[in-house]
């Protein structure tokens, strides 16, 4: 009974979905024919732009329609005749022209090219095909026999085979840079894959699992592929979230299938991306455990344990959250080798840039060394993205080579998102200019800060302006003096707003957040306050929701009060310091802010010029 109801429902759905657009296409075609016919008749005598302009002068035009793609311009006269001409390109974007028409009370409509009836059929197919697929799947999951479910549960792991006819060249070590330590460590794995006998002869057990740990974009996936490429073995890749599906048990079945395939193809590498998606501590999390995840995880553990030692299948997995992994996963005999991929240092960044700029013509004024210096904190994926954005920008500007300025604009875009042509009113512009000038001037006035190399009030992403400073080299150690000055720089924006005297805004919220974080870390983690060298709280270890719900507070309420007071003291003192500087240099602040309102972006030289006077 149930299935008949279901079938009827689908039939009705299909009729509705096919019927409505078909009716629409038919009736729409008829309309269109009439219009084009009248147009064709008319077009004979009124086929040029001058006719249109003449009619416009005579006041005979009632409405205008411009089609953006094809530059067709249709106009309707006061006695309702439709004409169509070819307009000069870009007319639809010409605001003067359009406003002019509007002033004359002429109705203006801008359309994109009308799609043909074929495109409707295309859309119908797009809608219908998934429905049919879904119906088949639903009936299968419903009452079908066990072997029909097979396809659904088989692993969809992508296999990057080593076949010679594969067009994609395999990835090797020369495609990975900036993580020499990690490369050195995986060399051993490659050795195992290439000649397992060498180790087995000595009775050594081949390690089974290697866990790559690193921030997103540092090249974990890339390195795993390079291992397979170097060893010249097949590479099976599946992401952790790919195992987890709505139906309980499917994930585990997929794991079984993936390892079955792998064993057939041994020696090979199995790569599980985002291991933390399934490998989280079992039993943790809201509302008890997640059955599906636990089953999948159990299956992975079983498979890893179950390899016979003569099959060289190396399981590599990647995560950026090793702290939340189930302890069973990192036990000896499982993912017992952890390889950390750090963010690249300045030399590493240059190497990565070289790899990605290999096929890109660089102008003489672009120096990859400079770009590497200007991008602290960028990981491989950011750098790849940066090079590509720069090439796109240069292409858009019709250049033959990618120049320094293209890279600079690309960097702004990668860091801060697209520039928005949001028009600020004069008052907002003035306040933002003072805010940014405040950051800049405080940074220029204090001894322990990073040099400012650019300040702008062009809105991007969520921020209305930005002050960029650039450390001379990568910092690993942060001195207390540097941190204190940095807090002053962060508060300098708000202080400038206060001095301007037009009231303060919410523009400083991000600055305040960062200043507070720094001050808190100084007190609670870095022993840089009057509260001594103690760790208060759980440090910066992230809280795993569910396991340690909320904050771990391992100090008394009195201490909590002291911490709050100490943090507030630091912030207040740094605020006072910033205020003193900006009050003393008020004229320079005004000059800087005025110049910013005028030019919107100031570079290092322009800033130095104003500040040094
Ligand atoms: P992850 O898996 O760590 O998130 P990926 O390996 O997916 O990062 O990196 C994404 C892309 O970024 C790569 O395809 C590559 O183009 C680039 N990339 C990342 N790290 C490096 C690196 N160390 N060397 C060269 N390119 C890199
Ligand atoms: Mg990845
Ligand atoms: Zn700010």
Give a description of the structure.
The protein is an alpha/beta fold and 613 residues long. The protein folds into 4 domains: 2-117, Signal recognition particle alu RNA binding heterodimer, srp9/1 (2-Layer Sandwich), CATH 3.30.720.210; 158-341, Rossmann fold (3-Layer(aba) Sandwich), CATH 3.40.50.300; 346-416, Helicase, Ruva Protein, domain 3, CATH 1.10.8.60; 426-542 and 552-612, Up-down Bundle (Methane Monooxygenase Hydroxylase, Chain G, domain 1), CATH 1.20.58.760. It has 22 helices and 13 strands. The chain has helices at 2-43, 49-57, 95-103, 117-143, 150-153, 180-194, 196-200, 220-231, 240-243, 250-264, 276-279, 291-306, 346-356, 368-373, 380-396, 404-416, 426-445, 480-500, 509-524, 557-584, 586-599, 604-612; strands at residues 61-67, 72-77, 82-86, 107-111, 158-160, 209-213, 235-239, 268-273, 313-319, 337-340, 452-456, 466-469, 601-603. The longest helix has 42 residues, at 2-43. The termini are far apart. The model is unreliable at 22-32, 38-45, 139-149, 163-167 and 542-550 (pLDDT under 50). Bound molecules: adenosine-5'-diphosphate, magnesium ion and zinc ion. Residues 220-221, 273, 318 line the site of magnesium ion.
Query: How are strands sequenced across the largest beta sheet?
Result: 5-7-8-9-6-10
Number of strands: 13
Number of domains: 4
| Ligand names | adenosine-5'-diphosphate, magnesium ion, zinc ion
Q: What is the correct CATH architecture of the largest domain?
A: 3-Layer(aba) Sandwich
* CATH topology-level fold name of the largest domain: Rossmann fold
Structural class by sheet pairing and helices: alpha/beta
Please give the count of helices.
22
- Described by its quaternary structure, the protein is single chain
Q: Give the averaged pLDDT, no decimals.
A: 79
């Amino acid at each position: 009974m149930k299935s008949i109801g279901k079938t009827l429902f689908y039939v009705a759905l299909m009729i509705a979905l096919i019927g409505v657009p078909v009716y629409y296409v038919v009736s729409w075609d008829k309309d269109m024919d009439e219009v084009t016919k009248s147009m064709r008749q008319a077009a004979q005598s009124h086929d040029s732009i001058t006719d249109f302009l003449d009619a416009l002068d005579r006041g005979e035009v009632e409405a205008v329609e411009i089609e953006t793609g094809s530059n067709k311009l249709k106009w309707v006269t006061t006695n309702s005749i439709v004409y169509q001409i070819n307009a000069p390109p870009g007319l639809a974007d010409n605001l003067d022209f359009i406003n002019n028409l509007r002033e004359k009370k002429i109705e203006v409509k801008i359309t994109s090219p009308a799609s043909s009836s074929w495109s409707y059929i295309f859309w119908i197919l797009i809608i219908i095909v998934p429905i049919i697929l879904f119906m088949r799947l639903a009936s299968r999951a419903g009452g079908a026999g066990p072997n029909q479910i097979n396809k659904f549960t088989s692993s969809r792991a992508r296999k990057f085979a080593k076949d010679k006819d594969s067009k994609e060249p395999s990835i090797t070590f020369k495609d990975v840079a900036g993580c020499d330590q990690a490369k050195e460590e995986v060399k051993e794995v490659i050795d195992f894959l290439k000649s397992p006998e060498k180790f087995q002869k000595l009775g050594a057990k081949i390690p089974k699992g290697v866990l790559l740990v690193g921030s997103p974009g540092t090249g974990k996936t890339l390195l795993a592929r390079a291992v397979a490429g170097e060893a010249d073995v097949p590479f099976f890749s599946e992401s952790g979230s790919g195992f987890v599906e709505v139906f309980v048990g499917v994930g585990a079945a997929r794991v079984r299938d993936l390892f079955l395939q792998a064993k057939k193809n041994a020696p090979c590498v199995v790569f599980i991306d985002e291991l933390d998606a399934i490998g989280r501590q079992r039993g943790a999390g809201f509302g008890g455990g997640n059955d599906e995840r636990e089953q999948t995880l159990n299956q992975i553990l079983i498979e890893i344990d179950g390899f016979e030692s003569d099959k060289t299948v190396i399981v590599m997995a990647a995560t950026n959250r090793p702290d939340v992994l189930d302890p069973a996963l990192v036990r000896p005999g499982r993912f017992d080798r952890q390889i950390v991929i750090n963010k690249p240092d300045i030399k590493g960044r240059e190497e990565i840039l070289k790899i990605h700029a290999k096929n890109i013509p660089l102008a003489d004024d672009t120096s990859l060394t400079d770009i590497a210096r200007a991008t602290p904190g960028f990981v491989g994926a950011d750098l790849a993205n940066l090079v590509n954005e720069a090439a796109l920008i240069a292409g858009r500007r019709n250049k033959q080579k990618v120049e320094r300025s293209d890279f600079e604009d690309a960097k702004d875009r990668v860091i801060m998102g697209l520039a928005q042509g949001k028009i600020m009113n004069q008052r907002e512009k003035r306040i933002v200019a003072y805010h940014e000038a405040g950051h800049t001037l405080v940074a220029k006035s204090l001894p322990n800060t990073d040099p400012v190399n650019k300040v702008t009030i062009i809105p991007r992403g969520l921020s209305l302006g930005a002050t960029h400073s650039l450390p001379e080299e990568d910092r690993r150690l942060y001195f207390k003096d540097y941190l204190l000055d940095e807090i002053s720089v962060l508060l300098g924006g708000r202080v400038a707003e206060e001095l301007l005297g037009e009231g303060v805004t919410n523009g400083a919220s991000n600055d305040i957040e960062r200043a507070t974080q720094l001050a808190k870390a100084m007190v609670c983690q870095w022993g840089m306050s009057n509260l001594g060298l103690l760790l208060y709280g759980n440090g910066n270890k992230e809280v795993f929701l569910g396991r340690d719900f909320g904050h771990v507070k391992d100090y008394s309420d009195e201490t909590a009060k002291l911490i709050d007071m100490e943090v507030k003291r630091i912030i207040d003192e740094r605020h006072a310091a910033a205020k003193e500087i900006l009050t003393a240099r008020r004229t320079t602040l005004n000059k800087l802010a005025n110049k910013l309102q005028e030019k919107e972006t100031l570079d290092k030289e322009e800033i130095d010029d104003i500040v040094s006077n």
